Amino acid sequence: MTTATETFTFPVPDLSTEALAAVTTEIAATAAGYDRSGETPWAGLRVAHRAGLLTATVGTQFGGPGVGQRELVRILTAIGEGDASVGLLASNLLMSHAGQAAHPHWPAAYYDDLLRRSLDGPALVNAIRAEPELGAPARGGIPRTTATRTADGWVVNGHKAYGSGGEALAYHVLWATADEPDGDAARPRVGHIIVPGDLPGISWIPTWDHVGLRATHTDDVVYENVELPADAFVEIPRGPDGVYRDPAAMAGPGGFGHAALYVGVARAARTAFAEFARDRVPSALGKPVAQTERIQAVAGEIDLQITQAETLLHGALLRAEAGDASILPQLSNVKVAIARSVIAATQAAVAALGNPGLSRHHQLERHLRDALCIRVHPPQEDTVLLASGRRVLGV
After folding, report:
1. What is the per-residue pLDDT across 114-168, written as a single tens digit (0 to 9) for each?
2. Residue 209, SS3?
3. Which CATH number is correct for 17-122, 2.40.50.140, 1.10.540.10, 1.10.730.10, 3.40.50.2000?
4. At residue 203, what are phi and psi to the nearest 5 degrees?
5. pLDDT for 232-244, tens place per residue?
6. Topology at the third CATH level for domain 137-235
7. Of 348, 332, 256, which Cα lies nearest the Cα of 295?
8. Are strands 146-149 and 190-196 parallel, antiparallel or unpaired?
9. Which of 97, 160, 169, 185 has its CA 20 to 30 A from that of 86?
10. Which of 320, 330, 156, 137 is nearest to 236 (CA)?
């Protein structure tokens, strides 16, 4: 559907360990302030943009570097280690660019506009899918948000929830049901419609007051008679049995961006734990607690959990890249296992420090809150375990 009508050239980012570590450090410097204020973390986003990270997955056919999945997860781990809120916004954006690179589907004028804006600074995109009544689409059902066919295009009406990015979004990739005069009312088309964020009829409701990812503005958004061109709607095909299944209901090789940013959060918790342990010298002990076997064992447990998460993340992608199809049904299990390791690592750090670890004066408290948010990303643990168990049992 889409080829760029303009010529763009985006920088090839430096993905060396040293360069990514420098980005992490610079983003981390403003993370606590944004966590407290809840404002969009523009400073961290601009750091990632200057490093060429926010356009790293722009396809080569559009003038971008077109980095692959393993490079993508390294980028998001580094950004998430600096600030989980920046990591979530970057993840949504980078996965959108990667999807466009693999299967061009945006209207040409819209994607040209996004790329043009991305040359100058962060231009955010997010797939806005959940609804207050339906909940997460991965649980089943079709959206009540409708795209009604008109003579010239579409008119969108609906109410969405959990629209990460809020008013900062340049574009929404909106999940909607097609309302068409010649359509099948019993089996309407379902798809995504590309929506510029500044169109008339879009209003945001500040509902986000969450335990973690507090600077993401994951708010509700209402669409009232938002007009769009005919090529803005992209249908999601039904399965061979005629049933619509949400693409996020099962993990795929391209769906590990969110998991990667939380691995970064666990790494940040490990660093914060080590710094505290080296600096803390109780008067009764007379030496840093880092020199005690108890704290050393906890540090080892934290490191073990992070090693496990990173090995699962990169190992699964390596197997998929090598064409090992046997890993594909297990990718959802891999995401759940990564989530468990991330939370275990962060909780171990907080538990060992006691009150300091739960104090808002210490960054570990923020890392724990952010790490817990990994559970909400689809596919979620209960559905993964049920599907996996049924596969094992053959029922």
Report:
1. 999 999 999 999 999 999 988 666 666 789 999 999 999 999 999 999 999 999 9
2. coil
3. 1.10.540.10
4. -135, 140
5. 999 888 777 766 6
6. Butyryl-CoA Dehydrogenase, subunit A; domain 2 (2.40.110)
7. 348
8. unpaired
9. 160
10. 137
